[in-house]
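Quick start: read one record
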Amino acid sequence: MLEKVDAPVAGVLPQDEDLASAQGWRVPPWLRVLLMQCGVLLAALALWQLAASMGWGVKVVVQSPESVAKALVTLATGDDLWPNYWATLKATLVGLFIAVVIGTPIGLTLGLMPTAQRVVAPFLSALNAMPRIALAPVFIVVFGITMAAKVALAVSLVMFIMILNAIAGVAAADPEAVRMMTAMGASRAQTLRMVVLPAAMPSILTGVRLGLIYSLLGVIASELIASADGLGQMIARSAGVFDLATVYAALLLLMVTAAVFNTASEIIERWLLRWQAPTAR
């Protein structure tokens, strides 16, 4: 039995108008995420201000957002912040570069040599488990109160990350593709360049992104112990005179720096891996 269906008026389907209206008000995903992040930030600031206003905790420790903002403005307009900030940033980038240059080839080599990897695996695990922050005084004794001590600690933290990530990247290579390259008479260098490196690149870039943060942590830890310059030394000096507003201002700057580092490395990683399918990234 046939049912009567109302014909559309003037050739326009009602669902088309509803769809167009819905699409017109749809919020882009990136904007939705940004708005949610701003909401979380505002809620955290409100809770922080409430804690300072109500006197929760020790008064000298719980500084208000206003006092921290004033301290940050004072630092930014003074002559002490930016030379120290650049000293920390330079040591961080140098430590990361050295760790990547040393750790990545070692990891690729061990990944291509399973027997050697099994031999050194227990030693790598033991060294990686050791708290290298405890080596900061040793590096200071060896290199003195110089940038080299900060860089050495950063390298000791990041190098093992790069080694392990490079090994994992080699393991991600397709064994069938490797065997096919061997059967076609390709050299080890050709197999590495055409099969292994493309497969290992995501893992290596993830190691670089993680290593950037750990390099910054290593530099700050070394500066907190002993250093002629750097944000860590500024934090230590301010904490020594109980100027916690300045301490929090410097920590806030470090948080922003780490967030910028992470975002920039993600953008670079997506650009370098643009040849991959989105689901494979």
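Confidence is low (pLDDT under 50) at residues 1-5, 8-14, 16-22.
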